[in-house]
Design a protein that fits this description.
Blueprint lengths: L1 H14 L4 E4 L8 E4 L14 H11 L5 E5 L16 H7 L3 E6 L9 H19 L3 E3 L3 H8 L4 E8 L11 H8 L1 E5 L10 E2 L2 E2 L1 H13 L2 E3 L5 H10 L5 E5 L13 H9 L3 E4 L3 H4 L1 H8 L12 H14 L5 E3 L20 H10 L4 H21 L5
Parallel strand pairs: 3-4, 4-6, 5-6, 6-7, 7-10, 11-12, 12-13
Antiparallel strand pairs: 1-2, 8-9
Length: 383
């Protein structure tokens, strides 16, 4: 199967100069193909090292590979949200696990609590009905064990929209009991606001401490910098920026500063590199500044994402880095070749080209997330 995938890949490479890497659903297994030149100005022009590409594909199937932020695995497909990840794609690309966020459709949500609990039940029901080799895991031990088997792993997270807690900290336990193990802190304004004028509210502090108590991962990606740093300081557990990038490389307002990155990593936290081109590529960011819509920006290159890995290794060390696509969200404008999860081996390929060891690659692609999850669990007081 892998040989056929590689041959399909090479047939297109030999056809003409490389311009754009994209996934071809018409090819078998984890194949990727290169589209004809001229489709994008952000082209990948390096020659392909065939042996290294095969090594990358093989390595993806031998190590733990985890996407630590996605909305797309169970998300209904639509024109606005094309399918970027499904279980056949995961198996073909050697991806073991996905942190799947709910609600699956946040637009027009009137009662988010009911929607979230319904979505979690739907995820479990679909897994049973389809007879999938999938485990909805509840702790790091289950995740580590399942990643070593031939089954796929789903960890359920939720992003904090209006009304999810309604000022009631007790709601956190309800989500925990339903299987939620990561919560992204987003909410501002209203009775259950987490922060006001970039400062944590009393409710925000209480919520962070309840997440610590239960062993739920605290995701601060969508908070302003001052509030992010306050959460890092208040939290007894390490926290995660699940889908971001370094401001030191690309000056996007959504990227994290070196100060925040160092502060987070010093307390055992983790950074998942997101796939939004406007956060990975300065040329895409410049287009945004000229008023180009986010979904029309030129796509970044896979090399831009690996530049982020290079930079973060210098700033926080290799043990604090992971991958968080945000498929179904901002990851809809992912780098060329990463339009779907089938492209994950291309990250490994470019890391190999830059001299990363297999141990370093395995850490970034999945093991770091499992170890981070373990550190969060060690702080829980739940018996």
């Amino acid at each position: 199967m892998k040989t056929l995938a590689l041959l399909s890949f090479l047939l297109v490479v030999c056809h003409d100069a490389v311009s754009r890497v994209s996934c071809d659903p018409g090819l078998t297994g984890s194949a990727v193909r290169l589209s004809p030149p001229g489709l994008s100005t952000a082209s990948t022009t390096d020659s392909i090292d065939v042996k290294m590409l095969q090594k990358a594909q093989d390595l993806a199937h031998r190590i733990s590979v985890i996407d630590c932020h996605s909305h797309n695995l169970f998300q209904p497909e639509s024109e606005a949200r094309p399918k970027q990840a499904d279980f056949s794609m995961l198996q073909g690309a050697g991806v073991n696990g996905v942190v799947q966020f709910v609600p699956l459709n946040a637009s027009g949500v009137k009662n988010p609590t009911d929607d979230i609990l319904r979505d979690i039940k739907e995820i479990r029901q679909r897994i049973r009905d389809d007879g999938l080799k999938v485990s909805v895991v509840l702790n790091s031990r289950e995740m580590a064990t399942s990643c070593k088997s031939d089954s796929s792993v789903v960890l359920i997270g939720l992003e904090y929209f209006k009304g999810i807690f309604d000022g009631d900290i007790g709601q956190v336990r309800r989500y925990y009991d339903a299987g939620v193990r990561e919560i992204g802190l987003v909410r501002r304004g209203g009775s259950d606001s987490l922060f006001v004028d970039q400062n944590l509210t009393g409710f925000g502090v209480a919520l962070v401490r309840e997440l610590n108590r239960l062993g739920i991962i605290c995701d601060i990606t969508h908070m302003p910098e001052s509030a992010q740093q306050q959460v890092i300081d208040v939290s007894d557990s390490p926290v995660i920026l699940s889908h971001t990038a370094a401001f030191g490389l690309v000056k996007s307002e959504f990227n994290a500063t070196d100060a925040t990155l160092r502060r987070l990593a010093a307390r055992g936290g983790m950074i998942g590199i997101g796939f939004f081109s406007g956060q990975l590529s300065n040329s895409s960011l410049a287009e945004s500044g000229r008023g180009v819509a986010w979904d029309k920006l030129s796509r970044a290159k896979v090399e831009d994402l690996v530049d982020q890995i290079d930079y973060l290794r210098k700033i926080v060390g290799i043990d604090a880095i992971g991958i968080g696509s945000d498929y179904g969200g901002s990851g809809r404008r992912a780098p060329e070749g990463l339009e779907t999860i089938e492209g994950f081996p291309l990250i490994i390929y470019h890391m190999l080209k830059r001299g990363y060891t297999e141990n370093e690659i395995e850490k970034v692609m999945g093991v770091n997330f499992i170890r981070f999850f373990e550190r969060v669990e060690k702080k829980t007081t739940l018996k």
